[in-house]
From TrEMBL, chains A, B:
Its main location: other. This is CBY1 interacting BAR domain containing 2. It comes from Chrysemys picta bellii (Western painted turtle). CDD domains: BAR_FAM92. The gene is CIBAR2. InterPro entries: AH/BAR_dom_sf, BAR_CBAR1/2, CBAR/FAM92. PANTHER family: CBY1-INTERACTING BAR DOMAIN-CONTAINING PROTEIN 2, CBY1-INTERACTING BAR DOMAIN-CONTAINING PROTEIN HOMOLOG. It holds the Pfam family FAM92.
Amino acid sequence: MENTVANAEKYFGQFCTLMASYARKTAKLRDKSDLLVKQLIDYANTENPELRSTMKNFAEELAKVQDYRQAEVERLEMKVVEPLKRYGVQLKQTQAEIKRFNKVRNNEIKQLEKLERLRQKSPSDRHTLSQAESNVHKASVDASRTTQQLEETIDEFQKQKLKDIQKIFSDFVTIEMVFHAKALEVYSSAFQNLDNYDFERDMEDFRAKIHIASGNYDARPMSATHPSSTLPWSANSQSVRSTLQRQEDSEEDSEENIVQDFSNPEYAQIRR
Amino acid sequence: MENTVANAEKYFGQFCTLMASYARKTAKLRDKSDLLVKQLIDYANTENPELRSTMKNFAEELAKVQDYRQAEVERLEMKVVEPLKRYGVQLKQTQAEIKRFNKVRNNEIKQLEKLERLRQKSPSDRHTLSQAESNVHKASVDASRTTQQLEETIDEFQKQKLKDIQKIFSDFVTIEMVFHAKALEVYSSAFQNLDNYDFERDMEDFRAKIHIASGNYDARPMSATHPSSTLPWSANSQSVRSTLQRQEDSEEDSEENIVQDFSNPEYAQIRR
């Protein structure tokens, strides 16, 4: 009986530590994914509308999975780690009861041995022997009562243990199932979203931009091929400079856009 | 253009780092689960047949999930982290091309400025001016050709980037979907297994054992309540000792069983 309890203490203690550790590692995976979500949104804000929308959508789906992972971590702590901890407290109580039982039982053996010694030493001392026999009887009654109590305790302990094992591990499996089902659902939608990304449209956008930029730029070398042109060269240098200036301006704009998008409620919404 | 590439370098570098980190954290979660599987089997071997079979079954299902997690980690490294790394190499090549273009372009500007200065200083030196104009013309032709090359490079770069983004993140989502679907499947079976656990049968087993143990034990206190018994007390003490001895023997047996079960092929089979 003592062994059963000590065994349970050993393994349930390990299960508790490992499950807590499992929950912590899951939380770390969530943290990494959160960083990925943040970077995806950062990146999306530097891209053309088509890819920007696709990446933001993807980031939001990834954030949703992390919300489910967060729920998984909380449930694991509440329905697996905590019950295992509580079980540890119950185990200590059962162990205390066993200790008490052992004490009563040892007393019975002690009284029996005392009577035995008296029988060997002074078999004719009726009074002392009778006293010792009465002590043995009393100790036996105590031990018998305690044995019954302990049997009930152990029965209750075993019943509770088996029920707890089934409950705790079933809860673990249920929590994991819910998480995996939700993640599967969200990733299916994320896959659709990535699949719908219009690559050609994005390239058209990009080529149009490049064309405008290189169009401006090409204007200068083209006039440079006509040395007889009356245009002053400095004006061309100026256009290079202003083009660069526009580039810087547009950079500032896109920087501003990033800041704006970071503070917009849509972004805040998907953060925990 | 330069900015587009620098931007891609920045974010793709971060994606690569984060995805590698995500894979590593997943591997750590697998390691913790592997430890849990080991402890569950250890524990199962100390329990009654009914719970032993349930726990072993559960441990095996949990081990299966870890096998799928291992496949997830390997796929993430192969289809997400590695392509992101390769993409980093491509980026470096594009950056080198842009650097080369800037050099040619700067040369054109330098030639233009030189011509401008000559026009201001010595507007009548036809020979030197003609030479400078010819240099500008040559530099312009070079720049124009390089611009075209660069436009092609940038177009190719953008096309590749957009395709890579879609491919890499779609692969990420697919890998995750496969893992979650498999985990869901295995945990559904694990749930059924835990649900089928026959608690009552296990308690009957346990009570029968307790009854045998306490039956042996109760025999002694009962005779102790009859001091007139002719049985020598020492014999009873002997029975206590032999009961304890049997307990120790059975402990040794169960210890042996654990060692046996650890070395059996069923156990080895579910380990990687």
